[in-house]
Every structure is written in structure tokens, then in C-alpha cells.
Amino acid sequence: MAYTHTVVVPLDWDGALERTREALAAQGFGILSEIDVRQTFETKLGAEAAEALGEYMILGACNPGLASRALSAEPEMGALLPCNVVVRRAPGAEATTVETIDPQTMVQLSDSAEVRLVAEDADTRLRAALADLIAR
Predict the structure, then answer these.
(1) How many CA atoms lie within 13 A of 36 on its CB side?
(2) What is the pLDDT of residues 26-46, one digit of tens each?
(3) Which residues pair with 8 in a beta bridge?
(4) Which residues, including other chains, have CB under 8 Å from residue 39's CB and lie 6 or more apart?
(5) Which of 12, 27, 103, 127 counts the highest number of beta carbons within 10 A?
(6) Which backbone phi and psi does 11 adopt, to 5 degrees?
(7) How far apart, in whole angstroms, are the C-alpha atoms of residue 50 and residue 114?
(8) Is 102:4 a contact under the CB 8 Å cutoff?
(9) What angle do CA 25, 9, 55 make, to 5 degrees?
(10) CA-CA distance, 122 to 43, in Å (whole number)?
(11) How far, in Å, CA of 1 to CA of 19, rounded?
(12) DSSP assignments along 38-107, one per residue
């Protein structure tokens, strides 16, 4: 089962992070959190583990309007928010991978019609953000 939408962009690490943040903002998503997985690996597991991973950042993206609708329909959906967006680059790679959660996974966990509508809207917006990364 696929649970992400993925694009590979010919951007360096800093450029990919910046453009991903911009593309998400253009679709109404703010970044609530940033988890630098590489730094965590380095701190907890050592430099070798961090080097093997490469660059890896998890952006906690949230569209407040969509989150409000989802939580009003089903408060338990908060366990699935924010929408995680991964920006990663393997050691020695010439391109950067950007992945978003597929919001349709929420639909599989809920029978709510409103959650279904929110997931469809979020899916459209996240796919548009990824398309923007490719188009530039």
C-alpha cells in the first residue's frame, strides 16, 4: 500500500528545503515543527549513523482550516496531524526526494464524510505543492 506522494527534484539540500517550505505555504500550509533526523542520529547514534542516513528532515505541515474541519468532525484525527513532509537526500545523491503523507490514509481509519472531504482537499493541496517543486 502506498501511503506517500513522492517527487525527486534536482536541487541541493538547502534549495530543496527552501522550495518545499515555499510550495507548502502557497497551498496554505504552515510548518509547525521541524525534526532534523540526521542531527538526532548523530547525537544519539553517532556520526557514522548520521552519515549513512544522509540529510533527512521531517516538516510538520499544517493547514489550520483543514485541521479545524478534521478535528471538529473527529477529534481523534489529531493523532494523525500535522501532515508530515519528508525532505531527504542520500549520501552522494545528486537530487533530493520530497515525500508527503497521502491524506487518503486518514479515510481508511474513519467513516466520517467530513474527514473524507478534508482528506480530499489536503490531498489536492499537497499534490499541488509537489507539482510546484517539479515545475520550477
Answers:
(1) 9
(2) 999 999 999 999 999 999 999
(3) 97
(4) 50
(5) 103
(6) -120, 150
(7) 41
(8) yes
(9) 85
(10) 34
(11) 28
(12) HHHHHHHH-HHHHHHH-EEEEEEEE-HHHHHHHHHH-GGGGGG-SEEEEEEE-TT-SSEEEEEE-THHHH
